Structure to design on (183 residues):
């Protein structure tokens, strides 16, 4: 009887582990209370296919309505500014660029710096205090945007690298002198 106890315990432990493995590997049901939906790889692919915009149907006597091809979903530019950020958050991400340079990946650095400056510009303009609360940084951003002329390509950013970094440093100094603006 003494020798069978370890075997029984091992069998019981194996059964418990097997039950846990099965329960962990199943797809969770959507949480209706949280308003969530369960997404499987098949449903994600189907949703991506449905969301793609159809192109114009081919012309001709043999063309069918279903002959229109679907265009791929648009890709997100990693350096495109987002919106809805608070000034303090946008300023914090801009400050994070102070430890970076063109030494490792200049294209990435300048693209990120431009994105962070644009996001801070949008945040200042949307701030509840009003854009008049940030006159110097907004004026400096307007000058930079005029210089860049809407061209955020790497060659243009590289050409105006000094202005980008100078604008960042100016805004950093201004914000440090106005700590109530970003806390």
């Amino acid at each position: 009887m003494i020798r069978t106890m370890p075997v029984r315990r091992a069998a019981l432990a194996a059964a418990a582990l097997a039950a846990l493995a099965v329960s962990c590997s199943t797809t969770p049901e959507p949480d209706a209370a949280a308003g969530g939906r369960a997404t499987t790889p098949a449903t994600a692919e189907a949703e991506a296919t449905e969301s793609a915009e159809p192109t114009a149907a081919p012309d001709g006597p043999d063309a069918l309505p279903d002959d229109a091809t679907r265009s791929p979903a648009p890709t997100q530019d990693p350096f495109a500014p987002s919106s809805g950020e608070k000034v303090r958050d946008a300023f914090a991400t801009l400050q994070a660029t102070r430890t970076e340079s063109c030494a490792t990946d200049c294209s990435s650095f300048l693209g990120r710096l431009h994105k962070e400056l644009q996001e801070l510009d949008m945040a200042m303009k949307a701030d509840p205090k009003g854009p008049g609360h940030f006159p110097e940084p907004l004026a400096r951003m307007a000058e930079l945007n005029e210089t860049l002329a809407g061209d955020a390509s790497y060659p243009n950013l590289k050409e105006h690298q000094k202005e980008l970094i100078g604008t960042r440093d100016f805004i950093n100094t201004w914000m440090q002198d106005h700590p109530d603006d970003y806390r």
Remarks:
- DSSP finds seven helices and no strands in the chain.
- The radius of gyration is 28 Å.
- Confidence is low (pLDDT under 50) at residues 25-55, 69-77.
- The longest helix spans residues 102-126.
